Amino acid sequence: MKRPAPVARPRARSVTSHARPARERPSLGEPHGRQRVLDVALLILAVVVVVLAVLALQG
What is the DSSP code string of 12-57? Predict the structure, then answer.
């Protein structure tokens, strides 16, 4: 009874560690609420940076 208990703890850690990349992979297809907001924010920032770069080059 004492052996399975310590073995289950590292398994739980490995599951949590694998859960993180698993959440990042579906974000490419259909991101969740927070990830979708972050993706939209990054897209807006990217557009702003590109526009500012073009204006700076033209100016």
Answer: HHHHHHHHHHHHHTGGGTS--HHHHHHHHHHHHHHHHHHHHHHHHH
Query: Range of 33's domain?
Result: 4-58
Rounded-to-integer distance, Cα 53 and Cα 34, Å: 28
The predicted pLDDT at position 39 comes to: 92
pTM of the complete model beyond 0.70: no
Task: For residue 1, give the DSSP letter.
Answer: -
User: What is the tally of structural domains in the chain?
Assistant: 1
- DSSP 8-state assignment for residue 10: H
Asked whether the beta carbons of 27 and 39 are under 8 A apart, the reply is yes
Residues in the chain: 59
